[in-house]
Specification:
The protein has 103 residues and is mainly α. The chain has a domain of 67 residues. Helix content is 69%, strand content 0%. It is built from three helices and no strands. Helix 2 packs antiparallel against helix 3. The radius of gyration is 17 Å and the shape is elongated.
Amino acid sequence: MNLRLAPTTMPLAMRPGGLAGQATRATGAGGGFADALNGALTSVSAAQNDATRLQREVQLENPNVSLEETMVAIQKAQIGFQATLHVRNRMVQAYTDIMNMQV
């Protein structure tokens, strides 16, 4: 059983190149914050869909799908969703702070 995280499901800071590498890639080839956010949301959605699919297979007693693999996929999806929720909350807080600034 392989417990390594795929590069698309790893937190940004843990990816090869880290946050600094992401920032230089984003400013270079037409990428940006919107593209990075869209990619992260797509990754979280894919992880949730994969976990749901594996849950369904376990419930249908598919012998090719292990319970351990399913539980790891569920935890990955849950962690990804929680991270996305934290990012959203921070973005809303930053927007609120900027809107409350006096000019």
